[in-house]
Structure formats: C-alpha cells, structure tokens
C-alpha cells in the first residue's frame, strides 16, 4: 500500500460542481476538513467490502461551509455560510446512491440535505469530521452488541486509533473500567491521558507470536477475574491471547482486523489466505459470546437502529462529554504522506486533510 500510494496516488484539479446541474435538495459544500480514516486506506487500495464505482473522490467524512443550497435544502433550515459536517452513511464513497463520487479529499463536495448537519457548538471543523464514524462504531459495538454495563471492565485493542479512542471515551461515559492496549509507550501515554484506567504495551520479541503474553497483566489488573468485554479491532494473535483474559461468559466484540488487512487480496478474490482464526475450544470453555459488530452493514440492514445511537451521541456532544481527539492535520497536497503515516501507525486518534 505504501508503494501504491507513492506510485498511483495523484492530485488533480477539480472542476467546481455547477449548481445548475444540482437538484433542489442538494447542498454544495466548500470543504474545510476531511477525516483520514482506516476505511479510506482500505477503499483506495481496493480492499474494502463496498467499493464505489469509479471515478470517485476518497474521504468518507468531511466538514465545511455551505456555498449553495437548493430550495428544499433551504426549507430544511440549511443556509449559505452555515458550518456543517456530513453523515458518511448517507453521502460519500461508503453511502448508497448517486452521491458516492463526492468525498472530502477535495475543495468542493455535493451532498443531499438529509446528510448535512450543523457543526456542534464549540467543535472545530477538524473535530466535526471525526465524530460520527468513530463514535457510532463505538456505540454500536459497546452498547448495542456488547451491552457494556457500569462497573464492568473492557479490554480495548488498538486504543490509540480514532475508533479506539472513541471506544475508550464511550466506555468511560458508560461507567466501565478500561484496559487499553497498543504497541507504543508514547501513544499509550496519550491514551492514559484520554481516560484509560490502565494501559498495556503488547509489543513482542517472540518471532512466533505477534504480541506479548499479556494474560497475566490483565488478570493482575482485574484481581484474577478477567475482563467482561473485549473490543477487538485488531485481530490475529491479539485475539487469541485476549481469549485467555476473560471471565466466563464474557462478550468478545469483533470490530475489525487491522492486523490482517489483506484478507482476500482485493475485492472479488476468494480464498481469504490471511483470514483470522478463532479457537473453538477456548470459546466453548470460556462460555464466550463472540459477536461480529459491523456498524455500517447493520445499519444498512436496519436503518432504524441509527436513531437511538445518533440521539445519544449528539446528547453527549451537547453536554460536552464527547470531544474527538485530533492529533494530525495535513494540507491536502500532502495526502501521500498522510496516508502513509496512517498506514504505518504514526497517527494517534484522528487525522485530517485540509484542502486550503
């Protein structure tokens, strides 16, 4: 992917969308900030399960200023000059329908009115475009699937990433205790500052096993009991070791597989040579509830589930309980470096591209 970015990724001049070609519920947004997420990397490398038709502009989530709004959009309260962000489930490369071509890695994007939201008071453009994707994922996984309760302990892997930090923030809002893992002491220091009760560096010097044997650390931190919930966005060896860290009847949440992104070597290819394997003996003996937690697919299957989680997330935002952590801001002209930094794990929390 790093070589592919260097060789194949190019910036091109954008023709500003002509408002005469737009319809009455359309909104033309001058982009001020676009989140750089893990899905953007997978999608641009052809590894994501839902690929938009070419040509398209990457950038699932973005924020900016309304430059033009159609009659229906204005009737819904959207006005020229409003500071807004978009719902990446409804518009952009991961959405269904005709707006897939309009991502945020550009100066301008077109979105339907129903996808456009006012930026919360006190939020920057950078925070606004790092809100829904990460916190909806955290809510769907921890609340809807994991049923995390106050006083329980959750083990969060990949905690220094955008969705990992969101899961940490949400777990603390729910009254849980958090053990967060990562491979960098520097990153874990930030994770601790963001609210983790304990942090564990899972780096390993064992050539036959990709992570440290952290079972004893987790057991010690939980007085021998183990954790109630595992939030696993990493997969691979870390999943196996996690199954030795749980209470009987724990919930094991599969959120992603960042450690093995090339599961099927590209869209449409079969065989999944790098698929993660989970041991059924441990699952049985631990009485584990192993839950796949696909946030986007679940919402596509049943759109009604979004109302509850969006209402709760925005309530937390209004109360000041959620503040997305953005550590890295790049000019759009430095998109190659930004994508390489994201791929190689140099970014803590959210990353943003700015077209100006």
Q: Please indicate the count of domains.
A: 2
β-sheet strand percentage: 15-25%
- Quick one: CATH superfamily of the largest domain? Medium-chain alcohol dehydrogenases, catalytic domain
CATH class of the largest domain: Alpha Beta
The span between the termini is: 26 Å
Report the mean per-residue pLDDT as an integer. 91
Largest beta-sheet characterization: 7 strands, mixed
Number of strands: 13
- Examine the secondary-structure arrangement and name the CATH architecture of the largest domain: Alpha-Beta Complex
Which range best describes the helical content: under 10%, 10-25%, 25-40%, 40-55%, 55-70% or over 70%? Answer: 25-40%
Q: Helical element count?
A: 13
Descriptive account of the structure:
- By secondary structure, the chain is an alpha/beta fold.
- The chain has two domains: 160 residues, Quinone Oxidoreductase, Chain A, domain 1; 165 residues, Quinone Oxidoreductase, Chain A, domain 1, CATH 3.90.180.10.
- It is 30% helix and 21% strand.
- The protein has 13 helices and 13 strands.
- The strands form two sheets. Strands 1, 2, 3, 4, 5, 12 and 13 form a seven-stranded mixed sheet that branches. A six-stranded parallel sheet has the order 8-7-6-9-10-11, sandwiched between helices.
